[in-house]
Design brief:
single chain, 5-stranded antiparallel β-sheet, 22 helices, 33% helix, elongated
Length: 794
């Protein structure tokens, strides 16, 4: 008796251990995750419409599931495959018994009796041989599947991984490949066709055996009618719908964005990318880019890119990485949006804004525009002319290079580099000394992506200033966003700041100057049309005519455009104004960009008395003053340095106390520019009143004039030809009374250079009559006529 009791006790212990092992095995028998197959990269627009996709690494079109299975497909697949799906625990005993009976009668496998849950397991186990042992494993794993997942989740697993013929896997991929639209938009006939495909995809995919497929679809439609899921009219009409033909190409409406997402997918666990793209704007902008590209191709300019950014959020609603014209493919697979290209003058507005923000200039402070040399660097204006002095805002509107270089010298290259980085420019990978003053004229590289972010940040800062009760969002300058899941949320009211990287008033005046930029010919009369709105815009052209840029800002959208050749080839006429600007305005024409302008940020300004002539803060001797609401830091700027009080005699000549009694003097305020500036300024401003001549007896005996050593006035010069056939040079010489005096040399009003100390310049003028003009640093001008004789060849 004791021996029997011990045996039973031992049997129980072993039984418990075995039962525990079986329970643990059952608990952990289901793989997690269930499916490890590579999936296609899928990019959707903001409303989850397919923009594009890339095939999975195993060559299958397998879309990852990310939304619920449409109700029509749920009803159809349950009715066709597993009518007791909602009630069974993963195994339908009745179906198994029916299948066993049928298979026995037919003496072959005709029906498997598998539930949807069991089919999910079979799909996960990669089509193992259909044996009794495998069926038993499927039964066990199906019951475990039901414990881990809900019925809804099991249907999603089935819909995402069922085969639909060829290399098409999953409901969503099948819906797009066979019908060209989302599965939620399919009709009952289309849904029923897809519901019967996984049952035997290799035999009856839509490319062959169409009669068998049609019979299966119609049989399912009849079942749906008998189950009162559809009515008789729907059933009859659905049967009249045709079957799909060969698989369709998938949409590819944002090819460069889709490819960028695919490359980043290595570190991204989600293969479905719900973007911020608006499919309607995307298609319109892509068509515009392609249309403009056809015109540019006449000048062998083959590539273009564009971004449309929602100002308030920073979301990219159109991403055009390049042209998509396959007939004229010239590196149009390159995504230029992120390419590093020479910036040209597209950064000038940012320098202007930062100088306003720092109180270094006022909006119309005069900036010298004269021949300028910075060591070995000699900037030139695009039209090779000089204004003498030009208001800073006008210099920006006209994109003058020399004033911009002088402004950067005043502001500081290193300082400006740091500010650009804070604004979001990520391409500055060299020291400030490496770029030097050429930074503002294209000496650095930027990308369309960074430019869009920086200009969108400026626009957003100005837009939100009044909305946020005159405070700033600290994240106003941030990278652009194409991921809908990471759409920007405004900072809480507690986190807003008193000051931002750029104050609203500085940005507002910058945009005012940008809105005065003369538009291309087709847009020149935009003010006359009520449908046209203001746009703060700027172009840029890189050295060698390799890149044409254009950026436009409005309260609703920021548009950034690049044109050029992806391989870096330059072309004559490849400028921002001629190549990129027309594209920019064509894009704005299809946008509802709101004709309202940015609200003036009065709370961010101070009333400052300004000199009308110089644009500086008014000084003691300024004749015309006006009080203007300007950026608050402007109150720190220096008073006008150009107005001075001059003593005159009764004839209007300048005098001093050394030659006339103070009682006989008349004082008058004059606007006096430095001599070289004055010479060029008067050419563009004929009403400029030069300083009266000094009365002869008032001049000191030491004052002397420049003298020309060679050539003399009215000289006729013969310049010989070198042995190689080129013209030799003749040395022109002058003398100056002051040691260290500077002479600026011009021939026919074309600036040639400057000399200090020894005043010699080797020249080779063309045959004919010329005028040589010398201007020194005190404003004295010396002009002589000379003629170069034509060289007679034997």
């Amino acid at each position: 008796m004791k021996r029997s009791f011990a045996f039973l006790k031992k049997y129980r212990i072993h039984g418990c251990i075995l039962f525990t092992i079986l329970c643990l095995g059952y608990a952990f028998c289901l793989p997690d995750p269930l499916f490890r197959d590579p999936v296609s990269t899928v990019v959707l627009d903001k409303n989850q419409t397919l923009l594009g996709a890339r095939i999975a690494n195993d060559g299958q079109w397998r879309f990852p599931h990310h939304t619920a299975v449409p109700e029509k497909f749920q009803a159809a697949i349950i009715c066709f495959e597993d009518k007791r799906f909602e009630s069974h625990p993963g195994v339908d005993v009745c179906a198994l018994m029916r299948a066993f009976k049928i298979n026995t009668e037919k003496n072959k496998v005709v029906s498997g009796g598998s539930t949807i849950s069991m089919q999910v397991i079979r799909l996960a186990r990669k089509g193992k041989a259909r044996t009794f042992a495998e069926k038993f494993i499927e039964i066990i794993l199906a019951t475990r599947l039901e414990l881990r997942y809900s019925k809804k989740e099991i249907l999603e697993l089935y819909a995402a991984n069922a085969p639909f013929g060829g290399n098409v896997v999953g409901l969503e991929a099948a819906s797009w490949k066979y019908y060209g639209r989302n599965s939620s938009l399919l009709s009952w006939a289309e849904t029923s066709t897809l519901a019967v495909l996984p049952n035997s995809p290799s035999l009856i995919h839509p490319g062959k055996n169409r009669s068998l497929l049609l019979k299966k679809r119609d049989r399912l439609l009849n079942k749906l009618y008998e189950a009162n899921i559809i009515d008789s009219i729907t059933c009859a009409l659905s049967k009249k719908e045709e079957l799909p033909g060969q698989p369709l190409p998938l949409p590819d409406l944002a090819p460069h964005l889709t490819e960028t997402v695919r490359k980043e997918q290595v570190t991204n666990t989600s293969a479905v990318y719900v973007s911020t793209i608006d499919i309607h704007i995307q298609q319109q902008v892509q068509n515009i880019v392609n249309r403009n590209s056809h015109q540019l191709q006449e000048n062998n300019i083959y590539n273009a890119a564009a971004l449309v950014i929602e100002t308030e959020t920073g979301d990219v609603v159109a991403y055009i990485g390049n042209t998509t014209d396959t007939a004229n493919a010239h590196n149009n697979q390159v995504d230029v949006v992120h390419a590093h290209r020479s910036s040209g003058s597209i950064l000038k507005p940012m320098l202007y804004a930062h100088m306003l923000n720092a109180g270094e200039i006022l909006p119309n402070t005069l900036i010298p525009d004269i021949p300028t040399h910075f060591g070995g660097y000699t900037p030139k204006n695009f039209d090779l002319s000089y204004d003498g002095a030009v208001p800073a805002g006008k210099a920006l509107a006209r994109s003058l290079n020399i004033p911009s270089a002088r402004m950067l010298q005043q502001h500081g290259t290193e300082r400006f580099c740091n500010e650009l980085k804070k604004m979001g420019m990520n391409t500055l990978d060299q020291s400030a000394g490496h770029y030097g003053l050429s930074l503002i004229l294209g000496g650095a590289e930027t990308s369309l992506w960074d430019l869009g972010a920086m200009y969108a940040g400026m626009s957003r800062s100005l837009l939100q200033f009044n909305k946020n009760n005159h405070r700033y969002d600290p994240r106003v300058f941030r990278p652009l966003n194409t991921n809908h899941a990471r759409s920007y949320k405004s900072a809480s009211k507690e986190n807003l700041l008193e000051h931002a990287l750029l104050d609203a008033a500085a940005i507002w005046y910058t945009f005012e100057s940008m809105s005065e930029v003369i538009r291309p010919d087709a847009e020149s009369n935009w003010q006359n049309f009520s449908s046209s709105g203001r746009i703060a815009w700027k172009t840029g052209t890189s050295f060698g005519f390799r890149d044409g840029w254009a950026v436009g800002c409005t309260p609703r959208y920021v548009v950034a455009v690049w044109t050029g050749n992806a391989d870096g080839e330059g072309r004559p006429g490849l400028t921002g104004i001629s190549a990129a600007a027309p594209l920019l305005f064509d894009i704005f024409h299809v946008l509802d960009y709101n004709t309202d302008w940015f609200e003036f940020p009065a709370a961010n300004t101070a009333s400052i008395e300004v000199c009308r002539e110089s644009g500086h803060k008014a000084g003691e001797y300024c004749m015309h003053k006006e009080t203007v609401a300007l950026p608050q830091p402007g109150s720190k700027t220096i008073p006008c340095p150009y107005h001075m009080q001059v003593h005159l005699d009764s004839t209007g000549q300048r005098v001093n106390a050394g030659c006339i009694s103070p009682a006989d003097m008349v004082t008058k305020s004059f606007f006096v520019l430095p001599p070289v500036q004055a010479m060029y300024y008067k050419r563009k401003n004929p009403d400029y009143e030069t300083l009266p001549a000094l009365r002869s007896e008032c001049a000191s005996g030491e004052e002397k004039s420049m003298q020309m050593i060679y050539p003399h006035a009215s000289s006729r010069i013969y310049i010989p030809v070198n042995l190689d056939g080129t013209m030799s040079r003749t040395v022109f010489q002058a003398t100056h009374p002051k040691t260290g005096g500077v002479i600026y040399w011009h021939v026919d009003d074309f600036f040639l250079g400057e000399t200090t100390g020894t005043h010699e310049l080797a020249l080779s003028p063309e045959p004919g009559s010329h005028v040589l003009t010398l201007v020194d640093d005190s404003g004295e001008i010396l002009k002589i006529d000379f003629e170069v004789l034509e060289n007679l060849k034997n």
